């Protein structure tokens, strides 16, 4: 049986998020997060998007969100879906499993279709699609 601390974390609402980079989308991140007491779904996703954008040189966009808000252990359900999707799309992995970056996948029609089936657009949940503001490129 899981520790009380783990069970408390699992009991938080959770969300599986799908992020894309490139136009057209070349890479997709499949991740999840727990929405702890100090955050709303909107603020938790926005915070994660901000963290990921900071490490990317291209604008990162939210392709879709799959919230888990009911049941005894919503975050545990989000973790399970994330794990299932990582296995399902392992043939598209950009990095070796278990290494940094292993949540990033090459984009494909199949992956984008699955995201569309599983998730809702971020705007439907009050989350911005993108937080990056691209500057004009300097003329060299």
UniProtKB/TrEMBL annotation:
Organism superkingdom: Bacteria
Protein name: GIY-YIG domain-containing protein
């Amino acid at each position: 049986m899981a520790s009380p601390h783990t069970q408390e974390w699992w009991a938080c609402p959770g969300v599986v998020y799908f992020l894309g980079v490139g136009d057209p989308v070349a890479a997709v991140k499949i991740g999840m997060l727990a929405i702890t007491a100090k955050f709303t779904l909107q603020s938790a996703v926005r915070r994660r998007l901000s963290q990921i954008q900071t490490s990317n040189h291209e604008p990162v966009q939210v392709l879709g969100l799959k919230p888990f808000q009911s049941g005894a252990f919503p975050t545990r359900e989000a973790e399970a879906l994330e794990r299932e999707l990582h296995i399902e799309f392992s043939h598209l992995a950009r990095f070796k499993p278990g290494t940094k970056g292993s949540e990033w996948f090459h984009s494909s029609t199949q992956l984008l279709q699955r995201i569309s089936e599983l998730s809702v657009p971020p705007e439907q949940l009050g989350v911005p699609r993108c937080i990056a503001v691209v500057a004009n490129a300097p003329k060299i």
